[in-house]
TrEMBL record:
Protein keywords: Phosphoprotein
Protein name: Response regulator receiver protein
Keyword Secreted tagged: no
Keyword flag Phosphoprotein: yes
Any one GO biological process: phosphorelay signal transduction system
InterPro entries (UniProt xref): CheY-like_superfamily (IPR011006), Sig_transdc_resp-reg_receiver (IPR001789), ST_Response_Regulator (IPR052048)
Length: 131
């Protein structure tokens, strides 16, 4: 399985990669624009991402806009199954979280700093972790 980490903060990228590298083939990008490009490329190569961990607040294109673009691509091109997308945020802002769920169809969200046990619990709920 493949996972894409979308995170503009270096330390967060390193931590998330350390949590996921035993379970997934991990790619990393630093903003929403690159996330959309990586998602598109993965489907072109017929190696789609099972999981996308996406920060909400990023430069260029934020996580909510990137998620909307990814969901639009999935719908327009009938891509199945849809990627499981966990939004990560340092914001304790319920309105932003709700927007990512209802407008962007996020699969889950985790407030930063991301703890390994919390991430693994979400992966299990999403059917991406068997233990």
């Amino acid at each position: 399985m493949r996972a894409l980490i979308v995170e503009d903060e270096f330390l967060s990228r390193k931590v998330l990669k350390s949590f996921l590298m035993a379970l997934f083939d991990v790619d990393i990008v630093v903003n929403g624009r690159e996330a959309v490009e990586a998602f598109k490329l993965a489907h072109t190569e017929n190696k789609p991402y099972s999981l996308i961990l996406m920060d909400i607040m990023m430069p260029e294109v934020d996580g909510i806009e990137a998620l909307n673009r990814i969901r639009t691509m999935e719908e327009q091109e009938s891509l199945s199954p849809k990627a499981k997308v966990i939004m990560t945020t340092a914001l304790d802002d319920p309105q932003t979280v709700l927007k990512s769920f209802y407008d962007g169809e996020a699969s889950a969200y985790i407030v930063k700093p991301v703890a390994k046990d919390k991430l693994y619990m979400e992966l299990k709920k999403l059917g991406l972790l068997n233990n």
